[in-house]
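Bug report

Summary: structure tokens for MBL fold metallo-hydrolase differ between web form and batch submission.
Environment: batch mode, default settings.
Steps: 1) Submit the sequence below via batch. 2) Compare with the web form result.

Sequence submitted:
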Amino acid sequence: MKWQRVPLGPLSTNAYILSNQQKECVIFDPGGDDQKLISTLNRQGLKPVAILLTHAHFDHIGAVDEVRNQYGIKVYIHESEKKWLGDSSLNGSRFFMGNEVRINDADVHLKEEGKLTVGSFTFELFHTPGHSPGSVSFYHEEAEVVFSGDALFAGSIGRTDLPGGNSELLLSSIHKKLLSLPEETIVLSGHGPETTIQAEMDDNPFLHGF
């Protein structure tokens, strides 16, 4: 398994591509710049099988429709935010962007935590609300990575002052779900560099004293 970060969109939000030896791949959070992402995929000969969304804020969804239509693949999102894709007040674009972002409905609404199989990829799905109600994290054991969206960052945590945000819930999600992962797990966040579970347990000031 191989992962790569591709910053996209108005906030340079981290999209990720996880690929296997057969050149199949899963795309996480394509936030904008659809042609940049499509060009990257085509140049590497990758075959997308799905788009997985950690949550539905505008900077994580801007290129969803273009990429979905280009490859004829399904979009996955937690059911708590299924209405956010087409609602610019919920996804935040009405307040933060000059242009409102409206995306077509997702194809799959995630409900249950646990094993999630997408094509030949298998993840452990964690519901990690707090930054937003439907925030989820995708853990891939073989690759030793967790795609945490905007829940956990290197040295920080997600903001909780947006609609549906809850700081106590976010800290609980991080401690109960993410920090239970093996310490060597690489955390791939929605913004900034990668980190590890161990590094955040040791040094993240927001996680101490909870």
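Above is the batch result. After comparison, the two runs are identical; trailing whitespace caused the diff. The radius of gyration is 16 Å. The domain at 2-207 is CATH 3.60.15.10 (Metallo-beta-lactamase; Chain A).
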